[in-house]
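Single-chain item
Fold in token form
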Amino acid sequence: MTSIAMDKRATITPGLPPLRPTLSYWQDPPSHLATHRTTPSPPKNVDIVIIGSGITGASIAYNITSRSEGASLPTILMLEARTACSGATGRNGGHTKCASYREFLDNLTNLGEKEAAKIARFQFECMRAVHACARKEGIECDSWQGDTVDIFYDQRQLEKAKRSIAEIKRVLGPGDPAARYTFYDADQTEKQFYAQHSLGAVQYEAGSIHPYRFVTGLLALALKKGLNLQTETPVLEIIKPYASSEIHVKTSRGTITAKKLFLATNGYTAQLYPALQGVIVPLRGHMTAQRPGLGLPKDGLPGTYSFIYDDGYEYMIPRPPGSKVAGDIMIGGGSTKAPDEGIHEFGETDDTTTRSVIRQYVENCTKEYFGSNWGEDDPNGRIRNAWTGIMGYSADGFPLIGQIPGFNDLYIAASFQGSGMVLCFKSAEALVKIFYGEDKPELDDWFPKAFRISEERTKRTFRGRLHTKTKPMDLEVEVKSQTPC
């Protein structure tokens, strides 16, 4: 891959989310909120507009409405181009997994011990917070907490993991729960986790969840407290008149005037805020739902998995006991198996289809990883469903959170690098604190500085591959001039 090729992919305008996307496992059957419209027409004037109804937008609405309700609540309108939670959140694997060690050495080198530790702890606490919220609010979303295992098929990756985890334990302290890791050799790995032909594995805390139910659960709570949700209402343009205190949000169903606006649009952000073209670049990911092989344990596998090789990885999440079709395997990845290491998945926002070479690889890899332990395929067939979703990536590999520089009424939480389930929920909490003027030293105690949007970060565009490869990032950064929305 060349930086020139990535340059071209980064200049592709995202466009609006297309109609009739591939059907995600999670969205069958659809929520009763799928096509919800609180009022027959969108209100003409509101205090706040939130664009996007995935975990980020829902968490922003949840945090604002949890502060007040009734007469004291600002008028909040959420706009969704398609059905509720039809984007990346409703199309992922349902994995609440940090894998902080994978980036810890880079963060240590580039940001220092304090910030590297803060990022690792933030991801860990966000992971736990999602499940705590589900319990607190009584959201039925198959919330499961336990352990995950990363299984290695490349010696360099395994050695790097050992070095990184040693540094995590040193910096965070061995008693920190975010630093709890256990290594297994190859024989132990097959015995404990049924995967064959590996070099070893590492186990640590993670979880899984029904992401669609979790997010629609948050939306239901916010709706009860006054949120107005308008689905199937794509935003066509954001107009910010010079020296005006208002924002005009042009939609397919009319124009809304707002005092404040939140962008929770992830990979599609540059469509509405062109200044971030090439700063946030979409990446299409592939997912499948599979029936487990007949040779695997009848009572289910012992947690969630990732399979790490020289230039990529897959992630696998067995559905927990008591969930819809318990034992089903959700597995995604495979991007680097496409020609040119999957570069054409960058800049791609068409989730109405799959790429056959990637889909077929993901469909077949489960049997390869488990070998003879997989057994025969289920008589009803291995594949239940296959679909795609659109993620958002930034040049430095971090989300962009905060008030957009140069504007006192535009806010953003986007570019979650395919790890939204352990980043979005508490990023939304931090953003709402910033919105309410609570950007105090206490926030810096737990919210990473590296995640905050800045003018310098909005000028950085990436020209090389990021996190879909497991070897050190091949990253070139280009600084561009800032343009208005």
User: Anything to note?
Assistant: The first strand starts at residue 45 and ends at 51. The CA atoms of residues 307 and 485 lie 41 Å apart. The longest helix spans residues 113-137.
